[in-house]
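Fold it.
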Amino acid sequence: MNKSSLWTTRYYWGYPLNWLIGLILSSIILYCIWCGIQPDRNQPQRLRVYAFSSQEEALTQGIFPAFEQAWEAQTGQELSIEGVFGPSGSLVGQISLGAPADIAIFSNRRHADCLKVGKYVNRDTDPVMIAFTPLAIITRPDNPAGISEFADLAKPGLHLLHTDPRSSGAGEWAILAEYGSAYLESGDHETAKNQLQDIWRNVLLVGSSARATLTLFELGTGDALVTYEQDALLAKARGVPMEIIIPKGTILARHFAVIVDDNVTFVERPIVEAFLAFLQSAEGQQILGQFYFRSANLDQTVIPDLMQPFTEEDLGGWGQAYDRLIEKLWKTEIEPGLSLDDTYSLLGRGD
């Protein structure tokens, strides 16, 4: 047999055999890889949720234990959820610097979208609204200053507390409420600008988050504070003496959750997606309602009724509203005239 015939014979018999051996080896490798990435049902799983401060009670006392129980009943896996809470804007920075959040719950969608810039969240990942709450004014019992609208916060001699818009979503929402209430009533940007400036002339102290600022009020500082209705109702239920006022025209603070794709492994994703679905479910919404959040479907059946609510979309959306009202107006024209250096160091600005 010549060399050509010998090579042809070997190729004829060897090629199928090599192909079969390769297929078997590939199957074994793929099986080993698959077994390696499958979660051990006896191995406890962990979920890390980063959320803005006003969510703490609703999550730790309501959502977390309910979901842990539901997940274990469904899968047989033990699950523990770790919650990290702080100012919404500060959480964006922490996650961008490598904080291991699987899910982030922010006070507004702008913060969720910020994570897409650094590719921590995929561009095709859509944050979901899980709840909303209107901005309210809280004052001392019996409302001694006679406050009923945001415009009343500009009264001479009033001492106001305010959440820092540099670190907190509540601070951003408050600025939109204070400006937007005047703009939507008058249709005039100059009138709205003047109202915002007049209100900030009365600001005595700023806190890094809604919860930190509310704590100052509980300790007896200031005459009034703009904050979430939800957080005010929760404090009042704890026995904090206060009057809660819902202005006729107020903004609806809409809260969003998003999967931090860059931190979520193949094994973790089913848990993360199930948690996100639980937040939107009837059970999850009912639990959030127990802690005074209003339903994500914008149902206004919760007392008190809202008379003339508006959203950031009425101010051009978050992109335009943040640039015009916070970056260019508050940071450039209002903040430089304030004497808040001591309060920033006292309250831990942005921490």
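The first strand starts at residue 45 and ends at 52.
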